[in-house]
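Components:
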Amino acid sequence: MKSFHGGVHPDDSKKYTAAKPIETAPLPEKVIIPLRMHIGAPVSPVVKKGDTVKKGQLIARSDAFVSGNIHASISGKVAEIADYPHSVFGSSMSIVIESDGMDAWAEGIPVQRQWEKLDAKELAGIIREAGIVGMGGATFPTHVKLAPPPDKKIDTFILNGSECEPFLTADYRSMLEYAERIVTGVEIAMKVLGVNTGYVGIEDNKPDAVKALQDAFNGTRVKVVALPTKYPQGAEKMLIVMLTGREVPSGGLPMDVGTVVQNVGTVIAISDAVTKGIPLIERVLTVSGSAVKEPKNLLVRIGSTFADALNLCGGLGSELVKIISGGPMMGFAQSTMDVPVIKGTSGILFLNKKDVNYGKESACIHCGRCVEACPMGLNPSMLSVLGERRLYEEAKEEYSLLDCMECGSCVYVCPAKRNIVQYIRYAKAQNAIQAQKEKAKVAV
Amino acid sequence: MVNEESLTMNLLTVSPSPHITSGESIPKIMWTVSAALAPAVIFAALHFGVPAITTMLVGIVSAVATEYLVQIIRKKEVTINDGSAFLTGLLLAMCLPPDLPWYMTASGSCLAIAVAKHSMGGLGYNIFNPAHIGRAALMVSWPVAMTTWSKMTTQVDVVSSATPLNILKQQGYAKLLETFGGAPNMYKAMFLGTRNGSIGETSAILLILGGLFLIYKGYVKWEVPAVMIGTVGLLTWIFGPSGLFTGDALFHMMAGGLVLGAFFMATDMVTIPITRKGQIIFALGAGVLTALIRLKGGYPEGVCYSILLMNCVTPLIDRYVKPKKFGARR
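Structure:
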C-alpha cells in the first residue's frame, strides 16, 4: 500500500506498555474536574460547594449545541469550585470532588439498554447527554460530529485505530481487550449517521490489534485495514486519504469528503453511554516514559491527577526532566504533576534527560528535510523564517500557514533544531489577532 | 527553607511540541559530507603528492581560522566545530591546482569564509557557494597561477602538463586523444583519476562513490548530479566538434570539475532550491551553463561559474516552485 506524502518514522517506543493489560486504577481520594474539557461553548456548574454528588451525576452543562456535559467521576462532596492547573490551557475553573469512599452510582445508572431498539435521534441524544468528546486529544464534541449539516452527505464512517504517537498504547490495548464494545460503538455511530460503509484504520505495527478487530467486525459492514506505519498516520486527513482515496480540501473538514472519523476511546464511550447509560467519567491512558519505574496502561477516572497516575506506576525510576500530556509529537509539556486527567488525555509521559533534547536553535540551512517530511505539502522552512521575521500575512497568503496541522514532523527532522511549529503557532495567533482587529474596525 | 539544589531539582522542562527529534544535526551533516570526500582526498594526496596535501591543509586551516576570528570579532558564538568551515576550506582546495602558492590558497579560503559566508550572516544565510566564490576570486586575482599545472608525481605516460579540457580547448579533440594514446586509455584515466587537473576533481569513480554514500544518507537527492551531468553529456554530444551528434559525451561528463561540482557543490543545501523539483531545475540550468561555457566560452571549464550563476536564481526558483499542497485540488 502506497503511503501518503511525507511523514516521519520515530522509534515507536511502544514496547514499554504494549504487552501490559489495562489496569483499573483504584478510587482516587479526590478528583479535579476542569470545566474546559471540550471545544465549544463553555459549561457552567450545576452543583455548588458543599453539595453531595454521586458517580455519573451531571455537574456542569450548557444549553449550546457545540459543548460537552460534565459528570462526577466519583461520589463524594464538592470541596470547591476554583481555578486549577490544566494540561492544555494552563489553568481552568474546576470542580473538586472529595471522595466518600463509596463510589456510589447516581440514580438510574447503570442501566441495561438494547441499542438496536433505539432510533438514530434517541442514540444521538444519549451521546450528547453523556458528554462524549473526541478522546484522541482534540476533544471536539462527538454528538456534533455525528450531526453534520444537511448539505454534507456523509457516506463513510472511519474508526481511527492508528495510534501513531510514540509511547501510546491505550488504543492498542483497548482494541485487544474491548473489541466487542468497539464494534457496538461503531455500529451505533454508523446508525446515527445513517451510513453503510465503515473502515477501521490500524498501523501495521499492531498486527494483533488488526487481527482482533478483523475477527470482531467479521460479517459486518466494516472493513478493518492495516496501514503502513508512519507518523502522522492518525491525522484525520492522512487516514481518510489512505482508506478512501479522498483528499480533504485545504481549509476543509472530513465531512467535506463525506467522512466522519472517530477515535477508539470515543466509540467505547459511545457504547457504554448507550448500552449501560454510563456517561464519560473514565478513560484508558498510557503512563510511560524513561523516568517511570513501571510503565502501564491505566483505566482512570477523569479528574485524577498525573501524580496519582505516577504513584500507580511505581513512581519515578530516574530523575524527571519533562512531563508530557499526550504523545511526544503533539503533546503538551507540563510544569506540575498536579494537573488532572481530562477527557482528551491519551497518555502521560514522564521523561528523563535521555529523552529530552536541549538542541540549540540555529539558522535554517535550507536542507529541505522539512519539506520532504511535511504531510500537508507545505514549506515549513519558509514558514519558520517568515514567522521569525514577523511576516505573518505573507505566511498565510503565500505559504498556506493555516493548512499546517502542527504534527511536528518538520521539527523532528530539522538539523538546525528550529522550533518551526512554534513559529507557525505564533504566526497563526498573530493572524487571528489581526483578523479580530479588522473585524472590530468594520463594526465601528 | 528551600535550598537552591532542591529548587533546581524540581524544575521541569516546558517546551513546545514535538518533544523528540531524529538526532539529525548540522555538524553531523557537515562531517558526513567531509567524510564522503575522503576517498577523493586520499587519492589526491597519493596522485599529486606533497603540494596537494599542503594546499588542502592550508585551505582548511585558513578557513577554520577565518571563521574563528570573524566570530570572535563579531562577538558571535564560535561554531568552528560544526564542520562547515572545514568543509568549505577542503572543497575550495579540491578545486585548485595542486601547487598553487600557499598564500593564494589562504586568501581564497579567507575570502570564502569572511565575505561569501559571514558577511551574509553566516551559515544558512549565504547566497553563493562559499568555496566557489573563493575559487572565482582566485581566478580573477591570479589567473596565471590558477591555470598552471605542473607534472603529476605518479603519472609517467602523460607528458603534458595541461588538463584534458585545456588540451581540448586549445589543441582540439584529435590532440586530446593522441595525448592519452587513444579513447579507451583516456576514458580509463578520466574514470580512475590518473590525469591532470585540480586536486580533488580527477577521480570520477571515487567522487561518485562518495556521492552515492551521500545519496544513501539522504543528504543529496540523486536527481541533482544525474541531471547536471546528464545535461552536460547530452549537450556536448549534440553540439560536437564536427557537426551535430559528434561530441564525446563520456569525456565531458568526467572532465574538469563536473563530477565534483555535481555531487558536492550543486548539492550544497544552503545555496540550492529547497524542493526536489526546484533542485532539478537548478541542476538543469547548471548543466546547460557548464556546457555553454565549455563549448562556446573563453574558459575551458564552466562548472564553478555555472553553479554560482544558478545560486543567484535559487530564491526565484523557490518562490515559484512550491511543494504540492495536500488538498489543493477542489
